[in-house]
Amino acid sequence: MFKVSNPSKPKVYQGVLEELRVYIKDNHLSPGDKLPSERELADKLQAGRSSVREALRALELLGLIETRRGEGTFLRSYQSLQSVELLSSFILLADRTRDELLQVKTMIEKEAVKLACPNMDEVARSKLNASINQTTVLEEKHTIFFTYLLEKANNQLLLKIWMLLEEFSSSIAKAYYDEHFYNQLMELLAKKDYDAIEELYKQQDHQLYD
Amino acid sequence: MFKVSNPSKPKVYQGVLEELRVYIKDNHLSPGDKLPSERELADKLQAGRSSVREALRALELLGLIETRRGEGTFLRSYQSLQSVELLSSFILLADRTRDELLQVKTMIEKEAVKLACPNMDEVARSKLNASINQTTVLEEKHTIFFTYLLEKANNQLLLKIWMLLEEFSSSIAKAYYDEHFYNQLMELLAKKDYDAIEELYKQQDHQLYD
DNA sequence: AGTTGCAGGTGGTCTGACCACTAAAGCGAA
DNA sequence: TTCGCTTTAGTGGTCAGACCACCTGCAACT
């Protein structure tokens, strides 16, 4: 009676996580630094070793720590990319319609062109040109073209998201444009004409081959 | 001698994770269904209960399962993304990462406005207007405004990605615009003036408050 | 029939015990 | 001294067993 549903009593390992966070902060630990041993933590935090291990497992899963048997547990240099991959893989877990996927991917590609503009000097452009002429397969052209541009866009997060979408979409739909499209983009890339890029994509809308 | 460096011997809990995946698949378990008890799993999979628990902790962290003391372990219907909270509490994202995050989020918001345009009739616009006037806190305004638009953009995948970025960014940086900005967007939304939206964002660039 | 109370099952936690592994101290031979 | 080996202490990896708190279902009682 009068049961308060389930306030879910906090678990020990969650408390350990919090205390670890404080510990790392207070001791100014940097990536590569060593954490206290599991036994020492269990003793200090007044928790069983198994609970401490459950907390460490969580951190390991998120790529925040690295454990080396016989040596100890170490703080890992954090790369946002890792967690992005983990989370993205679950976002894509649910069924996504082909249209939604392509829409998002195309949007990213369009914006990437614009972001890359300032970084595309003469050398970069000829390099890109040489790259896409290595193959005659249009799908490959597409991938090569935008992989290069996404790198030049100078946003690791965007690159990562795009690569995941690219990988995922390649398994359900081949998407590429008319060969002329890439040449036009190359020209606009040189002119840095943002509006024209926007316009070009507007025309191209719903004209993806697949 | 002849040590093969250390390919990192796989841990038991990782094997358990894999076997659980197979189990779920083979038995066609759906969200809400019950998993075998920890003791039963340990017995079946020939592993200690603590190892099984470490695997379950991982799944719990990812929001894939839910454990109810006294009842059992159940497949979860939705993901709460608790790992995001945990991650951001541990990491002070580097400035570079923070900037990238905001850049991607802003880009998505901009495109979402355009995608939502066709679906924003008179009724929808007044509804949105009423929503954002419920609060005077600018950060809340921002979230409410774009949550509504992202929904109207009619792309579940884009919505999901945005929510993820929003959740992340809200824990490391408050980002919102001048109040006037939202009013301008509302106007352009009515006019469906895509170029002006693009232009407005171009002006707003690097003017995020935080 | 309605209520109570008990028994069994479940997750949550702790302890102690091994194992495999690593690094550093110790030590003997060159 | 210096080199190379053995020893040893400490670490993570794992397991088994023991409680506890909690939930459910069922049997016994009213």
From TrEMBL, chains A, B:
Transmembrane segments: none
Keyword Phosphoprotein appears in the UniProt entry: no
Source superkingdom: Bacteria
Keyword Transcription in annotation: yes
Annotated GO MF terms: DNA binding; DNA-binding transcription factor activity
Domain HTH gntR-type as annotated: residue spans: 10-78
CDD domains reported in the protein's UniProt record: WHTH_GntR (cd07377)
Keywords of this entry: DNA-binding, Transcription, Transcription regulation
PROSITE patterns: HTH_GNTR
Xref: InterPro entries: TF_FadR/GntR_C (IPR008920), Tscrpt_reg_HTH_GntR (IPR000524), WH-like_DNA-bd_sf (IPR036388), WH_DNA-bd_sf (IPR036390)
Name of the protein this chain belongs to: GntR family transcriptional regulator
